[in-house]
Amino acid sequence: MVESIPRSAGRAEDTPDRSGSRLWPRRPRRRSRRGHRYTLVPLLLISSNLALFLLFFVWPAVIGVGYSFTSYTGVGSAPFVGLDNYQRLLNDDAFYAALIRSLIFTAAVVPLTFVAALSAAVLLVSPHSRGKPVARVVFFVPWLISPIIAGVIWRWIFGENFGLVNYVIMALGGEAVPWQSNANLSLAIVIIASAWGNTAINMLMFVPAIKNVPAAYYEAASLDGAGSWAKFRHITLPSIAPTSFIVILLSTLGAMKEYALFQAVNGGGPGTENNLLIQYIFTTGFRRAQVGYASAASFVLMLLLMVIAVVQLVINRRKDS
Length: 321
Prior knowledge:
69% of the residues lie in helices and 0% in strands. By secondary structure, the chain is mostly helical. The chain crosses the membrane at residues 38-62, 94-125, 137-157, 185-207, 235-256, 293-315.
């Protein structure tokens, strides 16, 4: 039956109408004014953000890349030096130390922030929790505080000579802990302070994601005898995987660019042992007046962040597939 149907069947240009005249293909309809409106309005809304993005991100980035090939000091001319700044970075021990410290800080603060934010979100969503309005306010207070003020608070708590924690320890008969003069302890304080400050915004993303998990999944799991941990592990975590990916990605990029909190807590100290890449770039560019060299370090940091983002995107897509 299918083979008996001629191939030309259904083609308008080959099918004569009842009056015997030939039918011609229809001309495309003109777009209506409403269609143009739906096209122009989004473009107008995007154009303002695009202009700001080009003005405050792309243009400074292009200028910075250009300076990275010069020995610019912030004033006067910018002599071209080619790849000399990048060759200096390869042999700069301070740059490697700052890079390793940045990676350690990121590797510690991202999981801690993730666990704290997810735990807080689960508590706020749980029907068994009480005092949720008060808990929301308490969880959000750290996010409302400026990083500089938060750093001053944590420095007051863990100060060596005037800190609250050392005061309690010494009142109980113990010895003062070198929270600021020990590099590892000083870094640990900043890690805790950073996780404390970033928990709220990540919790805000987890709460709607958990609420959007269909209740039928939990009901079916309950009928199968699954416990709370099994439901959380096999239903909640897979269902909120896209949100988890966004939280990890943003937390990683934010940790690699942390500056204000470090300056407020310990100033990158003791000495320069807790200088992250951002502190290293700031010190090199603005205090030592080596803008060209600092621009090269900034470009390397941007490439590193792009690589981290791309790797996480690839891993997330493989998991989705």
